[in-house]
Specification:
The chain is an alpha+beta fold. The chain has 6 helices and 19 strands. A hairpin with a 5-residue loop joins β11 and β12. The longest helix is centred in the first third of the chain and has 26 residues. One of its GO terms (cellular component) is lysosome.
């Protein structure tokens, strides 16, 4: 039985509509690269604070529990998942990386960097003391900045958490970003000089992104600025400042730059290794005080010696309500290293971190 012209036209229209639908569906799916919570839902940003493994056997601390805060809640929550599971916020977020790798898509790019490469024994001092993950397409992506050595695994191996990351506290922030923010990140990474151990940046991104493809190829002809401060906006409009210093900036990033730039005294929490820490600094107009102990609850706290996290906040009573999260310690050795901090004035973030401060040291 022959089809009439009307029947053929109707069938072509349905086929065209189907193609358009699946094409749009594919675009929408590609657009969903984002930071994700433990339910797998997209969030504008999240912050995690992995708690240290306690030496007291009665506490039953595994070194895998973490505090969690995101753009949809007002204060810290205890994680329902352990950080080494694929159902953790990190696991859910990085699953998008492993799916992108498996798809071999030319529409998605990624970049993993860490001065302590997964499965390595030592650390590379030829690069910045900086750690993170970027995953993006031409619509949006995320930037995960963290303090965990040897994390995450390369995409071929899937998600895991290093056993070496259990003992001490760790911190990090994930921000969902529109593609137009990646040119700014491109310049910031040049200053930070990251040790990139896995990357894929298809040619479709090379027009806008100049430095990341070169860093990915272990070649960079660009002159590196001593330091650079820029503004970023999350996908939902949250404003962040990113401080990036090169190894030519031979000073403590907290005292010499961040505090003076933000015009506020800072309480700084970084890994306080004995005889390798900088003392609190009151020599400049805006001071930096070392946090010495972190309070989780009325009965639970831990020392900065057990904390590999890196963050700072405005001192109580000073303007701004700033919170900064990054990857450098207050250490004489790290005044010679490149790295950075990302800061904002979200009051919920500030109050969450302020409640963690048990006590800090004054200047001598």
């Amino acid at each position: 039985m022959k089809e009439t012209d009307g029947t053929m036209t109707s069938r072509l229209q349905r086929r065209t509509h189907a193609l358009v639908f699946f094409g749009l569906f594919g675009v929408l799916q590609a657009a969903t690269i984002a930071c994700r919570n433990e339910e797998g839902e997209a969030v504008d940003w999240f912050i995690f604070y992995k708690l240290p493994k306690r030496q007291d056997k009665d506490t039953r601390e595994t070194g895998l529990k973490y505090l969690y805060l995101d753009s949809t809640i007002r204060s810290w929550r205890r994680s329902e998942q352990l950080i080494n599971t694929t159902k953790s916020a990190l696991g859910r977020t990085l699953q998008q990386l492993y799916e992108a790798y498996a798809s071999k898509s030319n529409n998605t790019a990624y970049l993993l960097y860490n001065d302590g490469v997964p499965k390595s024994v030592g650390y590379s001092r030829n690069f910045g003391h900086t750690k993170g993950v970027l995953l993006w397409n031409r619509i949006q992506g995320f930037w995960l900045i963290h303090s965990i050595p040897r994390f995450p695994p390369i995409p071929e191996e899937g998600y895991d958490y290093p056993s070496s990351g259990r003992r001490n506290g760790q911190s990090g922030i994930c921000i969902t970003l529109k593609y137009n923010q990646y040119e700014t990140i491109d310049s910031q990474l040049l200053v930070c000089n990251p040790n990139i151990y896995s990357c894929s940046i298809p040619a479709t991104f090379h027009r806008e992104l100049v430095h990341m493809p070169q860093l990915c190829a272990r070649f960079c002809s660009s002159k590196i600025p001593v330091r650079y401060l820029t503004t970023l906006q999350s996908a939902q409009g949250q404003t962040f400042l990113h401080f990036a210093k090169s190894d030519s900036f031979l000073d403590d990033i907290f005292a010499a730059w961040i505090a003076q730039q933000l015009k506020t005294h800072l309480l700084a929490e970084t890994w306080q290794r004995k005889r390798q820490e900088l003392p609190s600094n009151c020599s400049l107009p805006y001071h930096v005080y070392n946090i010495k102990a972190i309070r989780i609850s009325r009965q639970s706290y831990f020392s900065s010696y057990q904390d590999h996290a890196k963050w700072c906040i405005s001192q109580k009573g000073t303007k701004g309500h700033w919170t900064c999260i990054g990857d450098l310690n207050r250490s004489p050795h790290q005044t010679f290293r490149s790295g950075g901090f990302i800061c904002n004035q979200n009051r919920n973030i500030y109050q969450a971190f302020r409640k963690l401060v048990l006590y800090y040291e004054d200047c001598n």
